Amino acid sequence: MAYDLELTGVEKVYDNGTMAVRNFDLQVEKGEFISFVGPSGCGKTTTLRMIAGFESITSGEIQIRGRRINELPAEQRPTSTIFQNYALFPHMTVRQNIEYGLSVKGFKAAQRREKAEGIMAKLELLEVADRRHDVLSGGQRQRIALARGLAVEPDILLLDEPLGSLDANLRKSIQNELKLLQRNLGITFIFVTHAQSEALVLSDRVVVMNRGEVEQISPPYELYTRPKTSFVAQFIGRNTNIPGTIKDRDGDIVVVDTIYGALRGFLTDGALEDGAQVIAVVPSEAIDVHPDSIDREELVGRYQGNVVEGQVRAAYVVGHTVFNAIELSDGREVNIESHIEKYRNVFETGTSRVHLTWLPNEATVIGKG
Ligand code: ADP
């Protein structure tokens, strides 16, 4: 079976010489929700536009369900695109806007009416079908844009920062709606966003890009817990990245020599040998904080050596969450956010010296590159 979408060695060089996308490989199964994330200018939109047909492909190949589409004009591709500003026409009613999308793809009048009616029923837009969209709320406009994109029954829906212009609360509720809709329809979604939290909540897999290149393609949980590159370790989640050298190993767990002593972590890249320069990536969620009244040797045993000394520099509470800034011996600051109950006894005693611990398996050791 062919993939719903397959990119092989896709590259984009703009006329002015900008290398926007390099050697992009991706295979997407039908019904997957894939997000592209990365800093501004990393090539997310360019890639989406090449899939949509709004931008030519300099080299490589894009296939949809096994068919090469490199040379196919946008309107003949089995894709729809939802833009951040929705690109709806203010002088048209909701129904006309949706039918317009269908006419661009060449549907005849009777089909346009039938398909528009069907999708409006599905997205609960029939009530406002004959109103102009500019009198409707942000959430409704979002739904109209989705309806216009989905009415043509695309194989793949491309979404370019579609929630970017909504306020935070509305964004959350539309996120849920979007995910439910995608599950129900079983359509492949490719979603571009600069908000990593949105991508992590919505996606089956996330593509992290940096300077035109793919850094990692993984399910959200894996991106958090097993970053593959130092860029991903810095970009996703809140990690403490400790440099060091591999000193010893026991299966997948390696001992890394660091300025805080010997620390253990999980090695994902078996090719890294003893003596290699690495980074131990410790997610903030994996760190436990203990008052210094607890015996260090006991913690060393319990956490297999992963005990680092720190000094609490700031602690404040917002609702049920406590935020702590803890300084390590070399001045590095570790920020920890946790439920207030977890550390009530640590921070209410006025303790300022603490032990930080984590289990070896919860830290990932990656190459320094
Ligand atoms: P992102 O969506 O991740 O913010 P883009 O795909 O928009 O990134 O841009 C990738 C790179 O290509 C950037 O360096 C950007 O300046 C450049 N770029 C985007 N569009 C054009 C264009 N039409 N002509 C020349 N360079 C462009």
Task: Provide the descriptors you would attach to this structure in a database record.
five-stranded mixed beta barrel, 2 domains, binds adenosine-5'-diphosphate, 20 strands, elongated, OB fold (Dihydrolipoamide Acetyltransferase, E2P), 369 residues
How many discrete structural domains? Answer: 2
Rg: 25 Å
Small-molecule binders here are: adenosine-5'-diphosphate
Order of helices and strands: EEEHEEEHHHEHEHEEHHEEEEEHEEEHEE
- Main pleated-sheet profile: 6 strands, mixed
Strand order of the largest sheet: 6-7-8-3-9-10
Which percent bin holds the helix content? 25-40%
How does the overall form come out from the CA principal axes?
A: elongated
- Poorly predicted ranges: none
Q: Spell out the CATH superfamily of the largest domain.
A: P-loop containing nucleotide triphosphate hydrolases
Topology:
Elements: E1 5-13, E2 19-28, E3 33-37, H1 44-52, E4 59-64, E5 67-68, E6 79-82, H2 94-104, H3 109-122, H4 138-151, E7 156-160, H5 168-185, E8 188-192, H6 196-202, E9 205-210, E10 213-218, H7 220-225, H8 230-235, E11 239-250, E12 253-258, E13 261-267, E14 277-283, E15 288-291, H9 296-302, E16 307-318, E17 321-328, E18 333-339, H10 344-348, E19 353-357, E20 364-367
Parallel strand pairs: 3-8, 3-9, 6-7, 7-8, 13-20
Antiparallel strand pairs: 1-2, 1-4, 4-5, 9-10, 11-12, 11-14, 12-13, 14-20, 15-19, 16-17, 16-19, 17-18
Helix pairs in contact: 2-3, 2-4, 3-4
Bound molecules: adenosine-5'-diphosphate (ADP).
Residues 14, 16, 18, 20, 38, 40-46 line the site of adenosine-5'-diphosphate.
